[in-house]
Amino acid sequence: MSKSFERYQKRKLISSYFSVVLSIGLVLFLLGILGLLVLNTKKMADHFKEQITISVFLKDTAKQVEIDQLQKSLAMADYTKNTAYVSKEEAAEQHSEDIGENFQDFLGYNPLKNSLDVQLKADFVTPEQLEEIATEIGSKNYVEEVSYDKPLIGLLNDNVKRISFWILVASGIFTFIAVLLINSSIRLSIYSKRFIIKTMQMVGATKTFIRRPFIWTNIKLGIIGSIIAMIALAGVLYYVNENFPELGLMNDPVILIILFSSVFVLGLLISLISTYFATQRFLNLRTDELYY
After folding, report:
1. What is d(CA 38, CA 265) in angstroms, rounded to the nearest whole number?
2. 3 state SS of 148
3. What is the pTM of this model?
4. Whole-angstrom Cα distance, residue 46 to residue 66?
């Protein structure tokens, strides 16, 4: 009978530990995903900004030496990420593929212009700076027109600011919820041992002595939960990097170190603080209050 009861108690204890580890691991994993978004918000925003292209249309009278000189000067400019020359023939071929028919057969000539496509660095993709760049390039007498999507630039910048703000708000709220969830799991595991805590206190054990094993046990559980969360997070990072390498999530080791270190430290801190206050609560209860 006693052995059966011991096995039951052992299974109950293992189940309690498992639920704590699972709660910590799941919550820290979700926090890690949110942290990944926070740390990479600028990088992802920069990625989309750098897809913006300025098209510099050249006059038919533009000499090849002028075109080459312009392309070189643009390539050397601080704001340029990449430049590409598109001849009017290449542009016509691409346009025909897009519309599904050869428009030159209908018009009898090619109305398109030779052009330079300029991709800008993300820091320069603002309405004000783009206007300055377009004005500077358009001032050259062999440039016909400088074109870019003005409404899209404004919309992109507004959305980046809005998304960044709400990600920070969500991070704060979710961190608070995560602390509450982990704290609740640890308190429930300690609640089942409230009579043991009170018995130890009644025979003269100090509060520090009683708290110590609970704190160490839950710190170990916090470490296991943190490791599980980091393994799951690494799997998500690997998957995203394999399918969306242009985001470059694995290219910055400093961000990765900060992310994984934060997950690990957060698991330890929440486990430590939650265990301390949970045991303190039961240590301060009167004996008759343990039944409620």
Report:
1. 18
2. coil
3. 0.62
4. 31
User: Could you give the dihedral angle defined by the CA atoms of residues 150, 152, 156 and 157, in that order, rounded to the nearest 10 degrees?
Assistant: 10
| CB-CB contact of 263 with 31 (8 Å) | yes
Query: In whole angstroms, what separates CA 169 from the centre of its chain?
Result: 14
| Structure token pair of residue 213 | 């094993």
Neighbours of 32 (CB within 10 A): 24
Cβ atoms of 115 and 55 within 8 Å: the answer is yes
Element (H, E) at 145: strand 143-147
Burial 231-259 (b: 16+ CB within 10 A, else e): ebbeeebeeeeeeeeeeebeeeeebbeeb
Radius of gyration (Cα) for the chain, nearest Å?
31
> What is residue 104's predicted lDDT score, i.e. its pLDDT?
62
- State how far the Cα of 90 lies from the Cα of 57, in Å rounded to an integer: 13
DSSP-derived letter for residue 114 is -
Question: What would the CATH number be for the domain defined by 53-148?
Answer: 3.30.70.3040
Cβ(237)–Cβ(253) under 8 Å? no
Q: Which SS3 state, helix, strand or coil, does residue 126 take?
A: coil
Supply the DSSP symbol for 246.
G
Q: Which two tokens stand for residue 261?
A: 């270190």
DSSP codes joined into one string, 25-40: HHHHHHHHHHHHHHHH
Q: Residue 112 — φ and ψ, nearest 5°?
A: -75, 165
Query: Are residues 146 and 54 in contact, defined by beta-carbon separation less than 8 angstroms?
Result: yes
> CA–CA separation, 193 vs 122, rounded Å?
57
Taking all residues of the chain, what is their mean pLDDT, rounded to a whole number? 79
| Domain parsing of the chain, residue ranges | 2-47+156-291, 53-148
> pLDDT tens digit string along 134-172?
888 888 888 888 888 888 777 877 887 787 788 778 777
Both ends of the chain: CA-CA distance in Å?
29
